[in-house]
Amino acid sequence: MEKPAFNPFVMAQSQFDQAADILELDDATRSLLREPLREYHFSIPVRMDDGTRRVFRGFRVQHNDARGPGKGGIRFHPQETIDTVRALAMWMSWKCATVDIPLGGSKGGVICDPHNLSDHEQEQICRGYVRQLARDVGPLVDVPAPDVMTSAQHMLWMLDEFEVIRGERLPGFITGKPVGMGGSLGRTEATGFGVVFTIREALKALGKRPEDTLASVQGFGNVAQHAIQLYNQIGGTVICVSCWDQKESISYCYVKNDGIDLTQLRSITDRFGGIDKDKARDLGYDVQPGDAWLSQEADILIPAALEHQLTGENVDNIHERVVLVAEGANGPTTLEADRVLATRNIYMVPDLLANAGGVTCSYFEQVQSNGNYFWEKDDVLSRLDLKMTAAFQAVANMAKKRNLYMRDAAYCIAINRIAQASRDRGWV
Q1: Catalytic residue chosen out of the listed positions 107, 177, 256, 387
Q2: Which DSSP helix (H) or strand (E) runs through 348?
Q3: Of 357, 346, 341, which is closest to residue 392 (Cα–Cα)?
């Protein structure tokens, strides 16, 4: 019998159910938090550069806003589905609550492939997306941001369209903007740096020094590159990165046992994080199959690509040396893989915590835009470090106190905070 296709929303709900059982949530609260409060499906008609018309499908899911306006990125991806967006919106709710910022969880997406679209065509999709949602988003309602294959330029097109429709200047409507147009210094580094702030704290808990550790990273986009940058700065060595090869529609690993050269790899990488395979070989990298990042002889694994990457089928490939997994991606580890990691006593820094640096800095940007006062970069990154460290300590203390797996501890903290806000509002 053929195995059912992976559904990220089913996984997200299963993770919620597990924590809800630990918390002994009542039925009404479970029912409220297990599904999105609202969601939008719409079509975006676009006149292409060759004069033809194409219609793109778009989504926006607002999972929960009991603690504040919705917050969540917009993905452009050819395999985008409503269930992926639902799962990501739910994870955003938990993520904002885990780091204790006053925002709810949302997410958006458009089924498209920017690799095959001109800048003009992408701009039309951005403006069309906002036209469909302008009544249901805003600085005090739901605040979008960049995600997979969207950028500061996409956000600026969306902001411009929103402001034209509203007839006001509202830079707090969207985050991830260019710095000169209301964006925050430090936003580009925030998610990757946040991952490493939590790795630093996890290594302290494990009694290890960063300079004595090796890491293997899946992905070479913005999150992965900045995680590698800060991990190198604190003394760690990355021996492998894995990324997607657009030309061949397959992923490869680039391995150097004495440590990759980040600057060198960046110089042969396209804007989507794809490394030029032939140039990498010329520079002395061992090119291996894409899933080989799991089996490298490293202490730390950093999945920083897409969801559903550590599964029941491949988790046994993880090298026996690995002691820590820090999830730079959203939902990269399935429930089956989690059980194996827990059995092997591999320390897990879950996505709700590890990659929350991005949404935390987005919150900082929102605060700066709404107040029309902008902070220095060192101020942004020091505030980010404080937030991430405090959140890590809260989750680690909960895990120790209740003898929980770190993911379960993060879920319990987040769900309890949102459940309490929903009760206080009289929703349940």
Answers
A1: 107
A2: strand 347-349
A3: 357
Report the alpha-carbon distance of residue 220 to residue 340 in Å, rounded: 26
Q: How many domains is the chain partitioned into structurally?
A: 2
The pair of three-digit structure tokens given for residue 168, joined into one six-digit string:
């006001």
Amino acid at position 300, single letter = I
Question: Each residue of 225-251: pLDDT tens digit?
Answer: 999 999 999 999 999 999 888 777 789
Catalytic status, residue 107: yes
User: Within 10 A of 17 (CB to CB), how many other CB atoms are there?
Assistant: 13
Kindly report the CATH number assigned to the domain that includes residue 200: 3.40.50.720
The reply to whether 145 and 199 lie within a common domain is no
Q: Could you tell me whether strands 142-146 and 104-111 are parallel, antiparallel, or unpaired per DSSP bridges?
A: unpaired
Burial (Cβ within 10 Å: 0-12, 13-18, ≥19) of residue 224: buried
- pLDDT value of residue 307: 80
- Cα separation, 280 vs 293, in Å, equals 16
The answer as to whether 387 is a domain residue is no
Give residue 3's pLDDT.
62
Q: Name residue 261's amino acid.
A: D
Residues 196, 144, single domain; the answer is: no
pLDDT digits (tens, 9 = 90+) for 329-371: 988 999 899 999 999 999 999 999 999 999 999 999 999 999 9
Residue with tokens 């290594």: 203
